[in-house]
Specification:
Distance between the termini: 48 Å
Number of domains: 1
Number of helices: 6
Strand content: under 5%
Radius of gyration: 18 Å
Length: 145
């Protein structure tokens, strides 16, 4: 069954979205950079809202002193868990249950932000910076310079 059928949406053929088959996963992902470039009023402040969100997580981790048992650290880890609604079938899941980024990724992202803070960074200007530290660690562990 198609998304449009399940939710009673009439497609005119000129939509800027997709119509996934709901009983199987589709290897499609939302490109946040396309959203940021959109002229649609729905997305006009999306970049600043996302940056505000990540800055809040950054500040929680900074206030925790990097102590994983600290309430602020745990709260940051919790808000960095991004669930996915069921039945959209985006990604690589073997079920129809949306998984989003699970607890393992939330822990990794929190640790990456903590590592950035430990290097003296006090503010992030792009949310992509949160993943850069992980990439650096992977390269180092594989002796790639």
């Amino acid at each position: 069954m198609l998304f449009s059928e399940e939710y009673g949406i009439t497609c005119l053929g000129d939509e800027e979205w997709f119509d996934p088959i709901l009983h199987q996963d589709t290897l499609l992902f939302i490109d946040p950079f396309a959203v940021f470039k959109s002229n649609d009023d729905l997305f006009k402040d999306s970049y600043s809202e996302i940056m505000y969100f990540f800055q809040q997580a950054f500040e929680l981790i900074a206030s925790s002193g990097g102590i994983k048992s600290n309430l602020s650290y745990k709260k940051a880890e919790s808000i960095l868990l991004f669930p996915e609604v069921n039945a959209l079938c985006l990604g690589y899941s073997k079920t129809r249950q949306g998984s989003g980024t699970g607890p393992k990724w939330a822990k990794t992202l929190t640790a990456n932000i903590n590592s950035i803070i430990s290097r003296g960074v006090t503010h992030i200007s792009h949310f992509e910076e949160c993943a850069i530290d992980n990439l650096v660690n992977v390269l180092k562990s594989n002796n790639i310079r």
